[in-house]
Every structure is written in C-alpha cells, then in structure tokens.
Amino acid sequence: MKTRIALLFLSATLLLACSSDNDDENGGDDNSLIGTWSFTELNVDDADGEIKLANEVIKVLISQGCDIFTFEFKSDQTMEAAFRDFTETGTDVNSEGTGLLIECPENAEIISSTWSLEGDQLTIVDSDGMNDTVTIQLNGDTLTVSAEIIDEDNLEGAEAVFKRD
Questions:
Q1: pLDDT band with cut points at 50, 70 and 90 for residue 90
Q2: Which pLDDT tens digit goes with each residue over 12-56?
Q3: Helices 2-17 and 49-63 meet at what angle, rounded to 10?
Q4: What are the tens digits of pLDDT across the range 4-23?
C-alpha cells in the first residue's frame, strides 16, 4: 500500500507539470499567476479505499509543514515545479500504537518549464518542447486544477488546490 501512495504522489507531480485539457473557467492574466504556489489539499468527493487513505496522508503531511509540491511561476515566463520524492520514504508504526508515522521526504526534485496563461488556459512547455494545457480556476491566492490530471480513473470530479505563499 505504501508503494501505491508513493506512486500517487510521484504521479501527481509529474502529471501536474504535463497535464491535459480540462473544462473549468476563471483564469487570470499572466501577472495573477506569478508567485510560489503550494499544494494544500485534495478535494475528493465520495473517496474510498486507497484514495481516502492517500488524502488523509496528504492532510497529515501538510499539517506538519511538508511542502509536498510547489510551483513557482516567474515573470519571465519560466516555472519551477518542486516535488518530494516519496519513493524513498518509509513508514513505521507509531510506538504508542496510534497508527503510522509518515514523514516528509527529505529529497525533492525540481523540474523547469516555461508557461503562458490565456484566460483560464495554462500552457506548460517542458524541457523537451512538449506542451500541454490545463484549465485552471484562479481566485486570489487560490489556484485549483482538476485532480484528474493526477489519476484520471480514480479522481474524476476531484480538485487539487494550491495556495500562494
């Protein structure tokens, strides 16, 4: 199970950096996106099983100050995505018998890309020249994207929420 949780986090980050089209509205201009955005929550309707557990792990890690992944959108149209490497993270049973101890991974990976924003359409071009577009909702210091870009089969209707630091 811990392997699946690790893969969920790894997949989430990689797919957020290279996502597909979605149908939300409420974007903004290029300047409204500039800044550092940290993943804060996964809104999942009717979650069950492993997805529910993964969502609980996310909540615990964020409450402990773990930056699971962040995006820094710069005014020169470059972007850096930093995400924690969960493949190296282990879990332990709490010595008091109250559950699992889940620690924030020390290692982080950084991916550099370029970006552009037209209305609610965010286009990201990776270092290989591959470009993908995702529909965003931008409301002040809250950025929301469809979580289907994390896992199309299991997160249909869910949202990944980021807050500007």
A1: low
A2: 433 343 333 333 344 556 678 999 999 888 887 665 666 777 777
A3: 70
A4: 333 333 334 333 433 333 33
E strand map for 12-90: 35-43, 69-73, 78-84
Gap between the Cα atoms of 95 and 153, Å rounded: 36
Closest CA to 105 of 115, 124, 91: 91
Measured between alpha carbons, how far is 51 from 70 in angstroms, rounded to an integer? Answer: 21
Tokens of 26: 């409420």
Q: Extract the tokens encoding 24.
A: 């939300």
User: For residues 17 and 131, what is the distance between their CA atoms, to the nearest angstrom?
Assistant: 10
In sequence order, the 6+-apart residues with CB closer than 8 A to the CB of 35 are: 72, 73, 164, 165
CB 137 within 8 A of CB 144: yes
